[in-house]
Design a protein that fits this description.
By secondary structure, the protein is of the alpha+beta class. The protein is built from four helices and 13 strands. The protein binds 2-oxoglutaric acid (AKG) and fe (ii) ion (FE2). Pfam families: 2OG-FeII_Oxy_2 (PF13532).
Length: about 250
């Protein structure tokens, strides 16, 4: 099964899509000290995104594993699945080693991967973590995807389908980042203040069909989460594409 894409500039739901230039809008957020976020609210068209949602919701072998958090076992508060190219080192997070399914098992994932590669020239993702949030209680707590197998400055591309949910970022408390930007003593005090006091919390509402990219030192210096939301009654599916180092192809 493979889906054909309609370009995002020709949506068939004019009510949701405001049309024209807005479709290709990319917001960039410089978090400072070499960390950046890109956000493309209408990465995939409304209709294609629902097709992907329906396919993933019914075909992916979702599981809700038991993981370890702060030394205690608990059921992960969302469904999950892992897809990876052959020959990669195994992923282990929170004491859990997910089975790696093949891209060939779920061909529409290859279509989404291709669209992500097109949007992010030079990217070469070889693994994918899928999450399904079945309601507002499902969530992912504060964490960073800083596993060694992703290297020191991983690029992580996150595609969302279905229910809109908030994605929060906050600066890591014990930061190991580089010293703040160099300041010039010639500048007035007001300007200096502006330069060195970066905002240390950010929030995005991740829309159906959107793409958010974390880059640079975001995993080293920031944490992210999708908190519980009482009002989120319907399902959301999120795909995070990652590059694992150390495989057959490096
Ligand atoms: O669902 C999301 O938007 C984020 C998921 C996430 O952070 C992860 O899988 O590591
Ligand atoms: Fe994450």
């Amino acid at each position: 099964m493979s889906f054909r894409f309609k370009p995002v500039s020709q949506p068939s739901n004019p009510e949701v899509n405001e049309g024209g230039e807005k479709d290709k809008q990319i917001k960039t957020l410089d978090l400072g000290n070499g960390s950046q976020i890109l956000y493309m609210p209408r990465f995939l068209s409304f209709d294609d995104s629902w097709k992907f949602f329906d396919y993933l919701n019914s075909h992916i072998p979702w599981t809700r594993p038991t993981i370890r958090v702060f030394g205690r076992s608990c059921v992960q508060p969302r469904d999950t699945c892992y897809v990876a190219s052959p020959g990669l080192p195994e992923l282990i997070y929170s004491g859990y080693k997910p089975h790696a399914y093949s891209w060939d098992d779920y061909p529409p994932l290859k279509d989404i991967l291709e669209a992500v590669h097109e949007a992010l020239p030079g990217s070469k993702f070889n693994s994918l973590l899928l999450n399904r949030y079945e309601g507002g209680n499902d969530n992912v707590g504060w964490h960073a995807d800083d596993e060694k197998l992703y290297g020191p400055t991983p690029e992580i591309a996150s595609v969302s389908f279905g229910c809109e949910r908030d994605f929060l970022l906050k600066k890591r408390p014990n930061k190991s980042s580089q010293p703040q930007e160099r300041r010039s003593d010639d500048e007035p005090a007001s300007k200096r203040l502006k330069k060195c006091c970066h905002v240390d919390q950010h929030s995005f509402t991740l829309k159906h069909g959107s793409l958010l990219v974390m880059r640079g030192y975001t995993q080293r210096d920031w944490l992210h989460s999708v908190p519980k939301r009482a009002k989120a009654e319907v399902t959301r599916i999120n795909l995070t594409f990652r590059h694992v180092h150390g495989g057959v192809q490096g």
